[in-house]
């Protein structure tokens, strides 16, 4: 399967996918990496792996809708089977979803439907939950609301701060992402309303 991965930051989830894809048995290849900003480690990781990159900045477009359309065009040029948002800090819009809805997944550092949005680890810590985790979901128009493909649970320790908790979540998140994207690529999947089945 052809993967296009979109990133906005350090790209450790991307790196985990790049490493997994080095094994032909994994069943997927990262054919391009896109970002909404320059100068990030995620793009450097792609370049080091010899994977083509592109950047679509919101501020280079007159409206958010124009940006969304341009992003979708750049993704489409690489003919992905699956688009993986891996720490991509923008919401994709209607044009993007019209083209890639149902085959775009995102990872969120909390157990949905708890703590949607930008601050999953901090919100979990502030609430005082003892278990949190990460969720891989099929992207829809909402914020972290899409149909759930996989989840992984992580304990909250008494002495955690946001960074230590997020690091523990990210370790589990990377493993879940690699395992689940591999299964989607090799076995297929079916989205039936909110229910996602692997191996369909
Ligand atoms: C991940 O925890 C992702 O879920 C969150 O931001 C982090 C991105 O990490 N939204 P990285 O860029 O893959 O290292």
Query: How much strand content do the residues show?
Result: 15-25%
**Sequence of strands across the biggest β-sheet:** 3-2-1-4-5-6-7
Number of helices, where a helix is a run of at least 4 consecutive DSSP H or I residues = 6
Number of strands: 9
Under CATH at level 1, the class of the largest domain stands as Alpha Beta
Specify the helix fraction band.
25-40%
Sequence stretches where pLDDT stays below 50 over 5 or more residues: none
Main beta sheet, described?
Answer: 7 strands, mixed
Write structural notes for this entry.
- Pathway: Purine metabolism; IMP biosynthesis via de novo pathway; N(2)-formyl-N(1)-(5-phospho-D-ribosyl)glycinamide from N(1)-(5-phospho-D-ribosyl)glycinamide (10-formyl THF route): step 1/1.
- GO terms for molecular function: phosphoribosylglycinamide formyltransferase activity.
- Catalyzes the transfer of a formyl group from 10-formyltetrahydrofolate to 5-phospho-ribosyl-glycinamide (GAR), producing 5-phospho-ribosyl-N-formylglycinamide (FGAR) and tetrahydrofolate.
- Keywords: Purine biosynthesis, Transferase.
- It catalyses: N(1)-(5-phospho-beta-D-ribosyl)glycinamide + (6R)-10-formyltetrahydrofolate = N(2)-formyl-N(1)-(5-phospho-beta-D-ribosyl)glycinamide + (6S)-5,6,7,8-tetrahydrofolate + H(+).
- The protein is an alpha/beta fold and 200 residues long.
- It has 2 domains: 1-100, 3-Layer(aba) Sandwich (Rossmann fold); 107-200, 3-Layer(aba) Sandwich (Rossmann fold), CATH 3.40.50.
- 36% of the residues lie in helices and 24% in strands.
- The protein contains 6 helices and 9 strands.
- The strands form 2 sheets. It has a 7-stranded mixed β-sheet with strand order 3-2-1-4-5-6-7, sandwiched between helices. Strands 8-9 form a two-stranded antiparallel ribbon.
- Strand 8 and strand 9 (195-198) form a beta hairpin.
- Helix 1 packs parallel to helix 6 (162-187) and helix 3 runs parallel beside helix 4.
- The longest helix is centred in the last third of the chain and has 26 residues, at 162-187.
- The chain is globular.
- The two termini are 15 Å apart.
- The site of 5-O-phosphono-beta-D-ribofuranosylamine has 15 residues, from helix 1, strand 5 and helix 6.
């Amino acid at each position: 399967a052809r993967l296009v991965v979109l990133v906005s930051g350090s790209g450790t989830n991307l790196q985990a996918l790049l490493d997994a894809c080095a094994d032909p048995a994994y069943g997927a290849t990262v054919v391009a990496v896109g970002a909404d900003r320059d100068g990030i480690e995620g793009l450097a990781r792609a370049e080091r792996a010899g994977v083509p990159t592109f950047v679509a900045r919101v501020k280079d477009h007159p409206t958010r809708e124009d940006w969304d359309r341009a992003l979708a065009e750049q993704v489409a040029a690489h003919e992905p089977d699956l688009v993986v948002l891996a720490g991509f800090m923008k919401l994709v819009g209607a044009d993007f979803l019209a083209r890639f809805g149902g085959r775009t997944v995102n990872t969120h550092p909390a157990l949905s439907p708890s703590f949607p949005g930008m601050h999953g680890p901090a919100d979990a810590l502030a609430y005082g939950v003892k278990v949190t985790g990460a969720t891989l979901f099929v992207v829809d128009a909402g914020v972290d609301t899409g149909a759930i493909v996989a989840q992984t649970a992580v304990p909250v320790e008494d002495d955690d701060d946001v960074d230590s908790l997020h690091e523990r979540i990210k370790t589990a998140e990377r493993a879940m992402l690699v395992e689940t994207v591999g299964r989607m690529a090799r076995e297929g999947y079916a989205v039936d309303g909110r229910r996602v089945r692997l191996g369909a």
